[in-house]
Amino acid sequence: MSILAQTTERKAVTTLKKVLPYFERLDHVAMTAADALDTTTALNLIRLVIESNPEPKRKPKK
After folding, report:
1. What is the dihedral of CA 26, 30, 35, 37, to 10 degrees?
2. I need a labelling partner for 33 at 20 to 30 A (CA). Which of 3, 16, 43, 62 fits?
3. pLDDT of residue 54
């Protein structure tokens, strides 16, 4: 079952931001061409999700 929302939760975007550096470091390890393509595709998709969900405007503290 899928849970779809009108907007992506901040928790999801925050988690993806935490995972991103691990994907970026994968270019230093040996892997097959197919695996390298898959990880590059995943990296690009994660970046796309992060970029398409900008930081919300915060309300100033009183």
Report:
1. 70
2. 16
3. 79
Say whether pTM exceeds 0.85: no
Q: What is the DSSP string of 1-62?
A: -----SS--HHHHHHHHHHHHHHHGGGGS---HHHHHHHHHHHHHHHHHHHTSPPPPPPPP-
User: Which residue's structure tokens are 């999700």?
Assistant: 49
| pLDDT at residue number 16 | 94
> Left, alpha or beta for 32 (phi > 0: left; psi -120 to 50: alpha)?
beta
Q: Which two tokens stand for residue 53?
A: 């969900």
Length of the chain: 62
Q: Which tens digits make up the pLDDT trace of 6-42? A: 788 889 999 999 999 998 898 889 999 999 999 999 9
